[in-house]
Specification:
Helix content of chain A: over 70%
Structural class of chain B: mainly alpha
Distance between the termini of chain B: 41 Å
Largest interface: A-B, 72 and 100 residues
Oligomer: heterodimer
Number of strands of chain A: 0
Strand content of chain A: under 5%
Radius of gyration of chain B: 21 Å
Number of domains of chain B: 2
Largest sheet of chain B: none
Helix content of chain B: over 70%
Largest sheet of chain A: none
Order of helices and strands of chain A: HHHH
Distance between the termini of chain A: 35 Å
């Protein structure tokens, strides 16, 4: 455990590093200069890829080779996708997927 | 309430704001569920490690990156090393670079709000603000602000609840954290359908989506759950840069039309 002073410094350092990652793109490509075409291109194509990354990130600790073999996750994600294709309502998909997942991990796969 | 004699202009401005608040709140409901739950977990964890209850609330407000805060618990509990803390925080936060590049145009020209919008960007806030399709009458700046602000409030409130009342929770919350996965899957699907829903061009229309899923899954297999984000970002960047020659024409045309 660190002393109060050390903790304060550590937290400030962590805040600076985090804030830096958030502001850097805006600082580098500020209004004054024209945004390079390559960055404009990235601004258009990065987000869909990042959503894929975030999905994988949420599932990073799922054990596919043992335990439940990722079955609760696979079934619940299937429900999210099917309800979304059917209703196109994010809230309905999220609620049905999450409720199914909670039931699965609290009963059959507990 | 009661005396309603404002100038017409003021009235419509007020209406515009409340419409933006309302639609922002609707969009933030899944984040509400996920953040309060994760925030409570974070508050409980911090206090259980012997830290005072104000610390999770303070760090929830100023660091405001879920993954980094959970790491912060172990960093604060180990010996003092600010340089390593900086590198860890920058590495964990590196994905914000991608969010910034994606939001450059959308957050441009919104006035002083922009500083706060950039400061309080999180995975979920970025995903909601990027993917929301808003009716014309809604003020985009107001919408972005309220989603960002509400999300941050949920997270801080969750941390405070966990820090103060964590030991009293009885209701079985197991699996509730799946709401975040479900949200990202829905947003991914929404983006997928926006980029084209037919079988024709199934691959080329969705090259970003395939790249994101494929690169991340591959890097997760190679580097493991704790170290795959940065390699994934590099692979995504490389693949999309290589694909540019093929995609550039169509994509830049769309950009010009906007």
């Amino acid at each position: 455990m660190q002393t109060g002073e050390q903790m304060t410094i550590t937290i400030i350092v962590v805040v600076i590093a985090t804030v830096l990652t958030r502001f850097l793109p805006y600082i580098l490509f500020s209004r004054g200069r024209e945004t390079p075409p390559f960055v404009k291109y990235l601004g258009r194509v990065l987000a869909p890829a990042v959503f894929g990354l975030l999905v994988v990130y949420c599932l990073r600790n799922v054990n596919m080779t043992g335990g439940n073999y990722g079955l609760p996750e696979i079934l619940s994600i299937a429900v999210v996708i099917i309800t979304f294709l059917w209703k196109r309502q994010m809230l309905i998909s999220m609620a049905s997927g999450t409720i199914l997942y909670m039931i699965l991990v609290q009963t059959i796969f507990s | 309430m009661g005396n309603i004699h404002p100038a017409r202009q003021k009235l419509t401005a007020g209406k515009g704001r409340s419409a933006a608040v309302k639609i922002a709140f609707m969009h933030s409901i899944p984040v509400l569920a996920g953040y309060v739950f994760l925030g409570i977990t974070y508050g409980i964890l911090m206090v259980s490690q012997g830290f005072p209850p104000f610390l999770p609330v303070l760090t929830a407000a100023v660091v405001y990156t879920g993954s980094m805060e959970f790491l912060l618990v172990s960093i604060l509990a180990s010996s003092f090393n600010p340089a390593s803390a900086f590198v860890t925080a920058f590495t964990v936060g590196a994905r914000h670079l991608f969010y910034g590049i994606s939001m450059l145009n959308r957050y441009k020209g919104l006035g002083p709000k922009t500083i706060y919008l950039i400061f309080a960007t999180s995975d979920e806030t970025f995903a909601v603000n990027y993917s929301a399709s808003l009716p014309e009458r809604i003020d985009r700046g107001q919408f972005y602000f309220w989603v960002t602000f509400l999300d941050q409030c949920y997270w801080i409130a969750g941390a405070a609840l966990g820090a103060l009342f964590g030991s009293m929770i009885r209701f079985n919350t197991r699996g509730l954290d799946f709401v975040m996965t479900a949200m990202f899957v829905s947003i991914f699907m929404d983006q997928w359908l926006k980029d084209g829903s037919g079988l024709k061009g199934f691959f080329t229309d969705h090259i970003s989506e395939f790249t994101g899923l494929g690169a991340s899954a591959l890097c997760l297999l190679i580097f493991g759950p704790d170290h795959f984000i940065i390699p994934s970002m590099i692979v995504i960047l490389a693949v999309l840069a290589l694909a540019r020659g093929k995609l550039d024409g169509s994509i830049l045309d769309e950009e010009e039309e906007k």
